[in-house]
Specification:
Elements (H helix, E strand, L loop, with lengths): L9 H24 L5 H30 L2
Helix pairs in contact: 1-2
C-alpha cells in the first residue's frame, strides 16, 4: 500500500506515538499512587493524542486512495 501524506510529518507522528504511550502508561500508575482524580488529566491527554493519530491515519489513507485510483 502506498503511503499518503497526512497533516503530521514523520517526526511529529513518532512524537505523537511517544506522547500517547507515555500518557497512557502514566495514567494507571498515577491512579494507584495519588488519592485524588488528577490522573484523569493524563487519560484525557492520551485520548486527545490518540484522536490526532487516528485523524492523521485517515488523511493518509484518503490521499493514498486518491493516488491509487488515478
Amino acid at each position: 500500500m502506498q503511503q499518503g501524506s497526512g497533516f503530521l510529518t514523520l517526526r511529529q507522528r513518532r512524537l505523537a506515538w511517544l506522547g500517547f504511550l507515555l500518557a497512557a502508561v502514566q495514567a494507571p500508575i498515577a491512579a494507584k499512587l495519588v488519592s485524588d482524580d488528577s490522573w484523569l488529566f493524563s487519560l484525557c491527554v492520551a485520548l486527545m493524542v490518540a484522536t490526532l493519530i487516528i485523524a492523521d491515519d485517515a488523511a493518509r489513507r484518503r490521499t493514498a486512495g486518491a493516488r491509487s485510483s488515478d
